[in-house]
Amino acid sequence: MAAFRATLEELSEADLLLHVVDASDPYLERKMEAVGRVLVDLTLGSIPRLTVMNKIDRVEDSVVEGLCRRFDAVAVSGPEARRA
């Protein structure tokens, strides 16, 4: 817990937070909301966030496009994925 707390303290000095989300997770929206609540609780809600949809190789292209539009996100995947 102490290491986690130290990481959170460093976040307060960040200019931008990258919120990496598993695009294939059926509960991604619920988890995104939970992260948002935690950031607000920690008074980090005002730091700009870039949402990154990860593991896009596990979902259909149309789903990825919809998620990126809906959450103003960028899409990425690991080097072994079917897309660059």
Briefly characterize the structure.
This protein has three helices and three strands. The chain is of the alpha/beta class and 84 residues long.
Report on the architecture of this protein.
The structure is a single chain. By secondary structure, this protein is of the alpha/beta class. It has one domain (2-75): Rossmann fold, CATH 3.40.50. Helices cover 42% and strands 17% of the residues. Strands 1-2-3 form a 3-stranded parallel β-sheet, covered by helices on one side. The model has no long low-confidence stretch (mean pLDDT 87).
Strand and helix layout:
Elements: H1 2-11, E1 17-22, H2 28-41, E2 49-54, H3 61-71, E3 74-75
Parallel strand pairs: 1-2, 2-3
Observed structural traits:
elongated; alpha/beta; three-stranded parallel sheet; 84 residues; Rossmann fold; 42% helix
> In whole angstroms, how far apart are the ends?
36 Å
Summarize the biggest pleated sheet: 3 strands, parallel
Number of helices: 3
Structural class, by secondary structure, is alpha/beta
CATH class, named: Alpha Beta
Gyration radius, in Å: 14 Å
Number of structurally distinct domains: 1
Number of strands: 3
Q: What is the H level of CATH, i.e. the homologous superfamily? A: P-loop containing nucleotide triphosphate hydrolases
Question: Strand order, biggest sheet?
Answer: 1-2-3
Helix-residue proportion? 40-55%
Give the overall form. elongated
In quaternary terms, these chains amount to single chain
State the order of secondary-structure elements, H for helix, E for strand: HEHEHE
In the CATH hierarchy, the third-tier topology is known as Rossmann fold
Give the mean pLDDT. 87
| Strand portion | 15-25%
Low-pLDDT runs: none
Going by CATH, the architecture would be 3-Layer(aba) Sandwich
